[in-house]
Amino acid sequence: MTKVKSISKTWELPDYSTFEFRKKLTKYCICIPVLNEGEKIKKQLKKMLPFAKLADIVIADWGSTDGSTKKSFLKKMGVRSLLTLKSPGKQGTQLRMAFSYALKQNYAGIIQIDGNNKDGVEKIPDFIEALNKGIDYAQGSRFIRGGKAVNTPPMRFFAVRLLAAPLLSLGAGYWYTDVTNGFRGYSKKYMLHPKVQPFREIFINYELNMYLTVRANQLRLKTKEIPVSRTYTKGKVHTKISFFKGNANFLLSQLKAALGFYNP
C-alpha cells in the first residue's frame, strides 16, 4: 500500500493555513473550493447538514473577504476543516491544497463539489456508494438519465456538449457527457497513482479538473458518470471566468489534457 508520507515530500503545494473544528470522523471527505460565495455557500451548507455525518466537509478558501467563511458559522454547519490559501493561485491551486490535505488525513476518497449552490447535494450518497464499490473516478452529469440541467445558459450548454465533452472524451477513451461539472469523486488509489501526480505546480487554474477527467480511464481505472442536477438562476450568469482570456485558457487546458500534455 502506498504511504502518503513517503511521497508527499515531492508534492508541489501552496502555502496555506489549516483550522480544524473537530477530528476526522468519516471514511470520505467533501472538498468545497470557495471564493466570496456569500449567501450561496451559506445556503448550500445548510442543505448539506443531513450529509455531514456521511462525509467530513472541508472548505478550501481562496481568500474570501465577504464573511461567508466565518468560523462560527462553519462550525455550526458541521464543517470539519477550513483551509485558507496563502500563496498566489487559482482553482487548481485550491484543489491541490484541499486534495493533499485529504490524503494526508488518510481519507479513502474525496468528493469535490462547487460552493455556489448550483449542485443538487442530495446526490452526495451516490458518490459515496460509487467509491465504496471501487469506482476511482466518478463524474457528475446533468445530461444523462436521471440528471437535470435547469436554466443552463445556451452558450454553456453547447460549449460542453459540442466541444468540451467530445474533446476530453476522445483523450480519455471514455464517453463523458458533462466534463466541466465540478461535482466529482476520486478514490485515494487514483490520486496516489504514480502515473497521475496531481500535486504539480503546472496545475494552477482549471487544468487539474480537465486532467483528472481524462487520466483515470487512460490508466484503466474504474470510472462512471453519476446523474446530478445543476441549477442556474435566471438572468445574468455570474462567473469567475473572464469572457475572452478566461475562456481561451479554459479551452487550452482542455486541449492539453486531451493530448496528454499534463501526463507525468
Set down the secondary structure blueprint.
Elements: H1 4-7, E1 16-20, E2 28-34, H2 39-48, E3 56-61, H3 71-76, E4 79-85, H4 91-104, E5 109-112, H5 124-132, E6 137-141, E7 148-150, H6 154-172, E8 184-187, H7 188-191, H8 207-218, E9 223-227, E10 229-231, H9 245-258
Parallel strand pairs: 2-3, 2-5, 3-4, 6-9, 7-10
Antiparallel strand pairs: 1-4, 5-8, 6-8
Helix pairs in contact: 6-8, 6-9, 8-9
- CATH second-level architecture: Alpha-Beta Complex
Written as H for each helix and E for each strand, in order along the chain, the element string is HEEHEHEHEHEEHEHHEEH
Low-confidence stretches: none
Please report the distance between the alpha carbons of the first and last residues.
21 Å
Radius of gyration: 17 Å
Structural class from helices and strands? alpha/beta
Within CATH, the superfamily carries the name Spore Coat Polysaccharide Biosynthesis Protein SpsA, Chain A
